[in-house]
Amino acid sequence: MSFFRRSKSYMSPKRNSVKTKGLTNEPGDNNCFLNSAVQVLWHLDVFRLNFARLSGHYCFDEEACIFCAMKRLFATFEYSDKETLPPTELRESLASIYLDQKRFQLGLMDDAAECFENLLVQIHKHLVRSVTDDSCGLDHCLPHRKFGMTVIEQGVCQCGETSEPLTFTQLVHYVSANALCERLKDRQRHYRSMDPERTFGRLIRAAGSTGRACPTKCGSDFVTTTSLMNVPDIISIGVNWDSNEPSMERVGNLLETLSTTIKLQDMFDTVLDKKAQRTEYHLSSLVCYYGKHYSAFFYNRKHSKWVSIDDTSVSDVGKHWKDLARKFVKGRYQPLLLLYTNYDAKPLPVKTAPKTIELQNASVQSSPALSLRNPEIAESTSSSDCGTVSSQAVNGGARKKLMWGNVAPKRHTGHYKEPKSSDFTIYKPYPHLGSAKSGSQDQKGTSL
Ligand SMILES: [Zn+2]
Ligand SMILES: [Zn+2]
Ligand SMILES: [Zn+2]
């Protein structure tokens, strides 16, 4: 593979050893969702090394700037002698920026995967000076060039009917834990005979392709076909669970679907770019949820071992994926964000990036970040190995695309219980999925 030699050395673990530190989470802070999101970004070479090369940005408010706060936090990761660091500045900036949307507020728990996604959205904003443009094509936009997946989606029926093709860019590809397990169960024999390293991608594709009835009333279902147009270096998979407290068996079933490598042509029906077709992506970090708490895991390539980071506590898990999987099943950890990396990623071109910190009019700061586009329930299964799905209160199988717009994202992962209304009067983080469909603000109800 001499073809990739230069880029290989750029991401080589020998050249890029990463310093690992804990992040504080004092009682009542509820920082764990942010801590986990930050830890996976810091431990992603593609993110950390490229972010370090971006010195300037458009700064909308020096007092509450995600870019400034992350730069300072990453500098302390690199240079501080302390074993644990406070994420305070980033926590406060995030709360300030999302105040209007009542998201990520101080002292309140929130969703780690959505936090991860929104940190990327904010970085995009600081690099391109825009929050509203979906078609970000700038070379130096780290979130879109390295994480963005530009997809064309179309429904196709065997009678020949097709739906309008829909083009969108996603930073995270969401899939339902339930649908994954269902597909594995449906086609057990088929998948068992396949290369185990290729089943996860195929299952993701199958899980996303549940059809709706063809409008010509031919009696068949539309099958969703997906085409990937670009070559990302990180594939972020968000897993939606229908339960906060799955059994060991359910976690085990989900883990059975996972593989430590993934190929894009397994995940999508068509992959246009030749390089994207060749690239293999390696599972390099995860965020898990257990007992109202998030923690992060990453693979240290230099020392060939999996490491767990639970706020201030950093510990080795083992050399192999099965060591980690065993821990997850035993502890009923729900993997909810999986990051697969292209180890041959090339440096981001930064020629077009801002060279200095350019202070901007603050009005853009308060602008919205992301919205849900066309959420629809693609899954109406009533039960499965991975747990019972109620078509009412579940995100299982929901297929959601994010794009720029007027409202905060609503992904309703239900990874933790909603606070009682008495301690949480303004905002409830998990509105019911059905309400997102109609765009209303209805809340999830009382699954306390
Ligand atoms: Zn700034
Ligand atoms: Zn961008
Ligand atoms: Zn048809």
Which features characterize this protein?
single chain; 448 residues; alpha+beta; Cathepsin B, Chain A; 8-stranded mixed sheet; 4-stranded mixed sheet; 20 strands; 23% strand; globular; disordered C terminus; binds zinc ion
Describe the structure.
Helix content is 31%, strand content 23%. It has 15 helices and 20 strands. The strands form 6 sheets. Strands 6, 8, 9, 11, 12, 13, 14 and 15 form an 8-stranded mixed beta sheet that branches. Strands 5-4-7-10 form a 4-stranded mixed beta sheet. A two-stranded parallel ribbon has the order 1-3. Strand 18 (383-384) and strand 19 (387-388) form a beta hairpin. The model is unreliable at 1-7 and 365-448 (pLDDT under 50). One zinc ion binds next to loops.
Short description:
By secondary structure, this protein is an alpha+beta fold.
Average pLDDT rating: 80
Amino- and carboxy-terminal Cα gap: 54 Å
How many beta-strand segments? 20
User: Structural class, judged by helices and strands?
Assistant: alpha+beta
Helix content: 25-40%
CATH class category name: Alpha Beta
Radius of gyration: 21 Å
Q: CATH architecture, please?
A: Alpha-Beta Complex
Q: What compounds are bound to the protein? A: zinc ion
CATH topology: Cathepsin B, Chain A
How does the overall form come out from the CA principal axes? globular
> Are there runs of 5+ residues with pLDDT below 50, and where?
1-7, 365-448
Total of helices: 15
Strand percentage lies at 15-25%
Count of individual domains: 1
How would you sum up the major sheet? Answer: 8 strands, mixed
What is the assigned CATH homologous superfamily?
A: Cysteine proteinases
